[in-house]
Write a structure and sequence with these properties.
Elements (H helix, E strand, L loop, with lengths): L1 H7 L15 H33 L1 H8 L2 H34 L5 H8 L1 H4 L2 H12 L5 H7 L8 H27 L2 H8 L4 H30 L2 H7 L9 H10 L3 H34 L5
Helix pairs in contact: 2-14, 3-14, 4-9, 4-11, 7-9, 7-12, 9-11, 9-12, 10-11, 11-14, 13-14
Length: about 290
């Protein structure tokens, strides 16, 4: 009788451990370590740049920015970003479409190739373009004779910038398109929509926020790239120096105030990018991060 009573008694519910049930001291320590790291490697350097610019004063800032070589570097930086970002936008959408919507042999290899600029030093990328289009190459002198020099000119800087920035848009869009699958496109085509109508009215609205997020990151990297551009630019003052290279030139000339003034412009652009990114994540976090539809 006793055995029957014990066997029929309900078993206690298994204790489910909360995945974030670490002690308060552990959580505080982890948060403190993250804040210390961000302070040392992000907030403190940016704050130093802004503080040194403010300490030099507004007249010094205007004088540094108004220098013809600095103005030329700003124009070149904006021009390179204005061309490189649309290139990467087209490539990112095309690559994401191919990887997310089709099954083909070599798909994994293509995905790996997209990540290549993340693992290759930008200096090596610049050196490769010098070997391909430099004075000792087969192709470089012929292009120069045709009036189209690549190395130590705008095309070389553009090629290097496109190389180091092309994963940013693709890597933001690919996970989202893979999560969405092909159901919406198949439904649109079955209802008679053309390929372009399907893309502009179904695919593009579903990926618009991830696309904008990738464009912001790509633009920020394009304007701040130093290594690859330094190799292919030739450091010609007023002609092939972008803003990061101009900062180095000013610093080597002991024009510290000028260097901090130009650096503060790049820092402000970075902060604006971070602000826009935070707004996107706050308002459209599900669309950007979880692959949800609009």
């Amino acid at each position: 009788m006793l055995d029957e009573t014990i066997s029929s008694a309900p078993l206690p519910a298994p204790k489910v451990q909360d995945p974030v049930s670490e002690p308060l001291a552990v959580r505080v320590t982890i948060i403190a370590l993250a804040l210390v790291f961000l302070t040392l490697f992000l907030i403190l350097p940016l704050g130093t740049v802004i503080a040194e610019t403010v300490r030099a004063g507004w007249p010094s800032f205007v004088e540094a920015i108004g220098d013809p070589d600095t103005l030329a570097s700003i124009r070149l930086t904006l021009a390179v970003a204005a061309v490189a970002v649309p290139f990467n936008l087209v490539f990112g959408i095309s690559a994401a479409w191919a990887i997310a919507k089709f099954d083909f042999r070599g798909k994994t290899f293509l995905t790996t190739l997209i990540d290549l600029p993340f693992s290759v030093s930008p200096v090596i990328a610049g050196l490769v373009y010098v070997l391909l289009f430099g004075a000792d190459s087969w192709l470089g002198p012929r292009l120069k004779d045709l009036g189209f020099p690549v190395i130590f000119a705008f095309p070389g800087i553009l090629l290097a910038t496109i190389f180091v920035t092309f994963p940013f848009i693709a890597r933001e869009v690919i996970p989202l398109m893979e999560a969405q699958g092909t159901g919406d496109e198949e439904a649109a085509i079955s209802l008679g929509a053309s390929g372009w109508q399907t893309f502009f009215r179904v695919t593009l609205p579903n990926i618009k926020w991830a696309l904008l997020y990738g464009v912001l990151l790509c633009n920020a990297r394009a304007m701040g790239e130093f290594g690859a551009v330094s190799v292919v630019s030739g450091h010609v003052r007023g002609k092939t120096n972008t803003m990061p290279l101009q900062i180095e030139v000013l610093y080597n000339d002991y024009n510290i105030a000028g260097a901090f003034a130009v650096a503060s412009m790049l820092a402000v652009l970075a902060l604006v990018t971070m602000g826009l990114r935070a707004v996107l994540e706050l308002k459209f976090g599900n669309d950007v991060g979880n692959g949800a539809h609009r």
